[in-house]
Amino acid sequence: MLQLQQTVLTSVAQGADHRAILDQVCRLAEQLLPNSVGSVMLLDEKDELLNVYAAPNIPPEGVARLNGLRPGPGAGSCGNVLFTAVPQFVSNTFTDPRWEDLRQIAYDFNLCSCWSIPVYSAERKIVGTFALSSFEHRSPSPFHQKLLEIGASIIGIVLARNKVEASLRLFETAIAGSEEGFMVVDTGLHILSVNMTFTRMYGYSAEEVIGQTLPMLRSDEHDETFYSGLWANVRRFGRWQGEVWKRRKNGEVFPEWLNISAVNDTEGTTTHYIATFSDISRRKSTEAQIQYLSSHDALTGLPNRMLFQDRLENAIANAARDHRRVALLDLDLDNFKLLNDSLGHSAGDTLLRAVALRLKGCIPETDSISRLGGDAFLIALTNIDSVDAINHVLIEVLAQVASPLDIDGRPLSLTCSIGVAVYPDDGDQFETLLKRADKAMYHAKEAGRNTYRFFTEQINTDSLAHLRIAHSLRAAVRAREFALHYQPQIDLRTGALVGAEALIRWHHPEEGLVPPNDFIAIAEQTGLIVEIGDWVLREACRQAVAWQRAGLPPLVVAVNISAVQFRRGDFEQSVLTALSESGLAPRFLEIELTESVLLHDMEIMLSLINRLKDLGIKLAIDDFGTGYSSLSYLKKFKVDRLKIDQSFVRDIGRDPEDRAIVSAIVQMARALNLQSLAEGVETPAQLEFLRAQGCDEAQGYLYSKPMPPEAFEVFVRAMGDEVREY
Ligand SMILES: Nc1nc2c(ncn2[C@@H]2O[C@@H]3COP(=O)(O)O[C@H]4[C@@H](O)[C@H](n5cnc6c(=O)[nH]c(N)nc65)O[C@@H]4COP(=O)(O)O[C@H]3[C@H]2O)c(=O)[nH]1
Q1: What's this model's pTM, rounded to 2 decimal places?
Q2: In what helix (H) or strand (E) does residue 344 lie, and over which residues does it extend?
Q3: ipTM attached to this prediction
Q4: More confident site: 715 or 12
Q5: For ligand 1, is residue 503 a contact (CB within 6 Å)?
Q6: What positions does the domain EAL occupy (predicted)?
Q7: For 470-495, how does the pLDDT look when each residue is reduced to its tens digit (9 = 90+)?
Q8: What is the pLDDT of residue 569?
Q9: Which CATH class is domain 300-476?
Q10: 536 lines ligand 1 (CB under 6 A)
């Protein structure tokens, strides 16, 4: 008996298959009761019928006939064990009423006696029987009863263990195939096991990560405080869950939903952590998409009213802090309904999309546009420090919307009316500003459309003057209302004429002569300066050649160049065209630039200027001393002349600082081998000071105001021989 126990336990310890162990139990019992066969019967899943589970020495036909045995008073020893829940020892199966239903089987297989006792589950429930059937009539001795008891209890243990193992196997299969990632780590955060989903999600094989610690999977999205908080939670509450950004083997960072639970032993000490996790990148991008759709206009992709309002309110809060303004533009397309009805709605949609795109191009990235629905758009201009900045955008928007469109091959032109309300002048709430901008927009419509109106009358008046100039400037370019006046530049040592600065004049048909300071900035804002500047260059070159042809000594003509001319348009080509059209030798053309132009995009400027200088063109720095004065550029750019700004010259007589500045510029120019020219010289005293400092040249009312070409010609001829090329 002891040997039976030992043999079976060894098999259990070695992890042998449970059926093989049950067979072994039967065989060992048979050895201890010669002339008998052992069998194990188990209840089916419904707990109704008994089936043979192990019976190594009962022939298959016998097993087949015993299977499906329904417990009952005549259902043999095993059927009665289940029926009565107590052991059954039948010494004569041929006569005993408990074998009533199985009598034929008893005869056919010569099973003369049969002893059967219950097999219990771990929960003390009868799950089957263990029986010894003999080929002779006999009753069990106490030893045999013990044998049956021990056999049944071993069978119970083996079956229970098998159940646990089976459920473990099931669990493992479930984890391996789970859509969720699964990982077990020890308390030192070493990875002990991972499932297939982990491998798929992270791109690491199990071998690559087992034994490594968890931080290898971290991204840089969270700092140490985040992770220490997370683990503090797990230690305190036994679990943590939340969103964490992790890094795959290929370096990609992705969001996962992570669940960590502590596993404790029976004493409550944590031995392991189990992490389950899923990749939520797709969910997040769907969420982002939903968020996008709910905050944007489907047709144009522009923010909808809700998002726009949010942004405007933010902008107002920032502007309040920085003492700046925010403008709300309420824009309505003129006659859109008419176009939409006549073109069809699909063309109408294309039109709205095209307008949205153009509007986007008129404002900085940081500002917002929204479509309110229909043909109404809102624009928020943030960070505004002057009404001029709003004017600039308004003029640009009117021009952009009005420039011809091609819709499905059809040329179309469209205009819009804009109402403007300004924070803080017109209110500090979105709704108030919107109402006021809307009201102003109706005034723009009433004023004949294709224009804008501010809600506040004063801003309106100033701004409309601006708009008027912008409008008439466009016409002025076409109507050739510009002229150039020339101001002589004189050599201070010899008194000879060395050059002329060309200065633009605008002869407005109604307003008379408009000075450049009143329109150059607007021309720059509208981009018209490119066209105007082209004209100035061509005209100055043409005039210089005309004078030479008329017998005047050759003079260098200086032309002012705006920064916008450099950045927009092809400046180099303009110069080449002006020179070749006129036939002027490049050394008679000087371009005047301010310091800030040179310092912006320095590398690009340098190569452009060098190409022009290689042609022989001269370069003067205008308003010297008022800008950045980063002196290193003077050498880099091969400058010929420094023009001392008239603001320093004006007060030479009164202000010792100005005197010091002028004298320093003159000395520096000399040291660098550059010419110095003082602007705005009005008095002999100023002239004396400049001469004493060694300033090379001067220009100013003392000699002459800028003159029309004919007057300039008379001036030059009057100077006789005193003209030289500098
Ligand atoms: N008080 C006083 N002023 C004197 C005296 N001598 C000359 N001026 C004025 O000083 C300005 C000198 O031109 P700027 O500094 O280049 O300043 C110019 C220049 O920056 C710009 N400008 C003029 N013509 C053009 C042009 O064709 N293109 C560009 N981009 N800008 C131009 O407009 C500015 C103003 O031009 P203007 O009104 O013609 O004013 C000219 C000239 O008439 C003087 O003794 N006393």
Answers
A1: 0.52
A2: none
A3: 0.96
A4: 715
A5: yes
A6: 466-720
A7: 888 888 988 889 999 999 999 999 99
A8: 60
A9: alpha beta
A10: yes
